[in-house]
Structures are given as C-alpha cells and as structure tokens.
Design brief:
Structural class: alpha+beta
Strand content: 5-15%
Largest sheet: 2 strands, antiparallel
Subcellular location: Nucleus
Radius of gyration: 33 Å
Keywords: Metal-binding, Nucleus, Repeat, Zinc, Zinc-finger
Organism: Trichoplusia ni (Cabbage looper)
Shape: globular
Protein name: Zinc finger protein 1 homolog
InterPro entries: Znf_AD, ZnF_C2H2-type_TF, Znf_C2H2_sf, Znf_C2H2_type
Number of strands: 22
Number of helices: 13
C-alpha cells in the first residue's frame, strides 16, 4: 500500500530506508531518527508502507532537532543544579494513595513559602473528603474548583487598572485580515486576486505593457516591469557595489540570509518564502516528477523543465554578441563570452592562483583541490572529486546515447564527442572552403 506512514497521504515521495539526515556529521540514520521521535518500528520487508510524504519528512527532522535540544538543556539544568548544592530538592509523600511532591525551600525564599504550600496542597485539600465521592470524576471536579478559586483570587490582585489608553496621533492600526484559500491551503491578504492563479491560463485576465507585447496578471506587475525594463531604474548596493533591481531583496538574499524566515532542516539553508523552500527540498531527494515531452529527460521542478525546452529544443538565443554575431540563451553566458574577446579572467582560484573567466568554472575547478572524493558510483567502487566526472563515468554503465548530431542524426554518449564529430565530419570542409 503506497501511502504515507504518518499522515496516510496517497502520494508519498520518499522511502524511509533511503532518506538522509543532517549533513553536519550526525551518525544516525533516518530510520533511527524516525523511531527515536515517533516510537514507530518500521521493517524493510514489511507489508506495511515504508513511504513518507515531504511534509512529514520535514516535520520529523524538525521534531528531532527540537527533542534533542530539550534533552540537552534538561541535562544541563540538572547538572547545574547539582553543582550549586541542590537548593531545591523534591521530597515525595503518599497521602491516601495520592502521590504528591513537597519542595524544601532555601532561606532566601521563605516569604513565598505560604503560596507554594497552597499550590502543593491543592491535590490533597481535604484528606477525609476523598472518600465521600462515588466516582473519580466527581473528585477531580472538586479539585479543579478549588484550584481555580486560588487562580481567580491571584489574578484579581494582579489585575491592572481599567484605565483607557490614550490614542497616539498618527499611529497606524493594522486592520488587514488574512483569508485561507480552499484550493491550495495558503493564507493570503487578497483572496480574490489570489484565486486568479488557479484559473486556466486562457481565462486569466492579462494586462498588456504599453511599450512591448508582454502581458501581466496585475497592474503592479506591469508597473515593476516598465520601471526596470524600459525606464532602466536600478540602484547600486552599498555593500558589494552591484547594480540590482530590488535593493532590499538583494540585501536579504545575499548579505543577510540569516534573517530569512524559512529554514531547511537537513542542510540549514534559509529561504525567503515557503515555495522557495519546497523547490530546494527537491535537491535532497532523487525524485524528478517533471519530464520533458521531447526527450523524456526528467527535472525536479517545472521551471527547470521549461528552461530546458527553451534552451535545448527551441534553440532560443536572444542575446547577440556585437563582435562576432554569436548568440546565447542567457545574458550571463553572453557576458562570459565577451571575456573571450577581451581575454579578461577576473576570478582567481585561492588554492593554486589560476585565473578563470567565470565564477562557475572557478568553483568547478576548486573541487579538484579537495582531498575527499565525494561523488561515488552506485554501480562500482569508483569515486570522483567532481560531479560531472561521475556523470561522464555513468555512461560506461548505462550505454545511453542522448546527444544526436544535428547534421546526420548519429547519437553519442557524450556531448563533447558529438561536438567533435560535427566539426570533423560536417563543419571542417565548410571552414576550409
């Protein structure tokens, strides 16, 4: 039965025996964490489901972190109390089969002893009256009544005076009420505007830009587009001197990431929204639910799949180099290409001092200097320092050929082999001519 072991959801994405825990050196497996937190024994060969949904996975890791913190602090407090000489020691007494505790209090707190004795004696207010009730429920109701009498008297003494607060001029009173969407469960300020997101794309209201043909779902989105795209209004960051579209968002995401509200429990990274966290959580699992309808390649998010279709299959290249007329899909790729004309290499490797034209190439190069080979093959004993080395190695096991020649259709296992074939077999004689 393929259901979530905790909440019985019908679409569980994860297997308890294949999940990871934290990346901070925790030696516990996720199965041990699951049993430690919930007390549920899971057998691998059992007929009962061993699957978990992504929400329950995050909740178990969060609860494990909370429980470990509570146990650690409890041990610390008890050890601190023992070092201080044990000024408060509980003494247990039995009265009419009712177990009570009485605290032996130091001389510094004698003035509060009367109040403590009252609170302790609430459970044994009248020794003889315990036998006068027919059921335990009647006896408990009397205990509650006595208890709340003391609470009401205590709150009346400490109750503040009913003086009306003076209204401060210019103070804004928050009257925004949030409503919950029944379709997706999100709480939003404007439920009517949010409901447009659940309509089909053909029936949504679209607002056209005055300058270009791009359309938007709201006037505010069109205003932001016009301000940034057509008016060119941008600001420079005072910390890194980078020209950005949204300075406040750039500051939080780049320079003050610890203030972001949503934390990933397995790796500790923080995100600005829950949707960003959900997208990131797919990196901790091997699930790839979004498949390309052209080449059947699978992706963890729909946006990555659409980006792949635009770049690989639609051959979209809107950024043109003014020096050699070569076009690129992304503006960043054009900026990297321009450095090939200027021979500029601004990124230096701190390990060997070698310079590179792009930050991504420099980061990929730095993995060579690591002592540990982090990427291990699941089919043999080989391991590699870089992820792309492992990807190239896996072709020797799968024998997959998914790189076809654009001229004759012959398929190759590696893209560099295909590129070499296209040049030697089809393009070399064109260049010579």
């Amino acid at each position: 039965m393929e259901v979530c072991r905790v909440c019985l959801a019908k679409t569980p994405e994860k297997d308890i025996f294949q999940l990871q825990t934290r990346k901070n050196g925790d030696s516990k497996s996720f199965l041990e964490v699951f049993t430690f937190c919930l007390g549920v024994q899971v057998a691998k060969d059992s007929a009962v489901s061993t699957k978990l949904c992504i929400k329950c996975y995050r909740k178990v890791l969060s609860y494990h972190k909370f429980k470990c913190l509570a146990l650690k602090n409890d041990t610390y407090l008890k050890s601190k109390l023992a070092l201080e000489g044990g000024s408060v020691k509980p003494e247990v007494f039995i009265k009419d089969n009712i177990k009570t505790e009485q605290l032996s209090i130091s001389d510094d707190s004698q003035n509060n002893s009367v109040k403590d004795e009252v609170n302790i004696d609430l459970f044994v207010k009248d020794e003889d009256s315990a036998t006068n009730y027919d059921t335990d429920d009647e006896f408990l109701s009397v205990i509650k009544k006595i208890k709340y009498e003391y609470i009401e008297e205590d709150t009346k003494e400490k109750a503040p005076s009913n003086k009306k607060r003076k209204k401060v001029k210019g103070a804004k009173v928050s009257t925004v009420t949030r409503q919950m969407c029944e379709e997706c469960g999100k709480t939003v300020k404007d439920l009517k505007a949010h409901s447009y997101m659940h309509l089909p794309e053909a029936s949504r209201r679209r607002i056209k830009c005055h300058t270009c043909d791009q359309t938007f779902s709201s006037h505010s989105a069109r205003y932001k587009h016009n301000k940034i795209k057509h008016l060119g209004i941008r600001q420079k960051c005072s910390i890194c001197n980078k020209v950005v579209k949204h300075p406040k968002q750039h500051y939080r995401l780049v320079h003050n990431r610890s203030s972001l509200p949503f934390e990933c429990v397995p790796c500790g990274r923080r995100f600005i929204s829950k949707s960003s966290l959900d997208v990131h959580m797919t990196t901790h699992t091997k699930d790839r639910p979004h498949a390309c309808d052209v080449c059947d390649k699978k992706f963890s998010t729909k946006s990555l799949m659409l980006l792949h279709k635009r770049q690989v299959h639609d051959k979209e290249k809107s950024h043109l180099c003014q020096l050699c007329s070569k076009s690129f899909f992304k503006k960043y790729h054009l900026q990297e290409h321009l450095r090939s004309h200027s021979k500029e290499k601004p990124y230096e490797c701190p390990d060997c001092g070698k310079f590179f034209a792009s930050l991504s190439i420099m980061k990929s190069h730095r993995e060579i200097h690591k002592d540990v080979k982090s990427y291990a093959c699941t089919l043999c004993d080989m391991s590699f320092k870089k992820r792309n080395y492992l990807s190239v190695h896996m072709i020797s096991h799968t024998k997959e050929k998914r790189h076809p020649c654009q001229y004759c259709g012959v398929k190759f296992g590696r893209s560099d082999h295909r590129k070499r074939h296209e040049y030697t077999a089809h393009e070399k004689h064109l260049v010579a001519a």
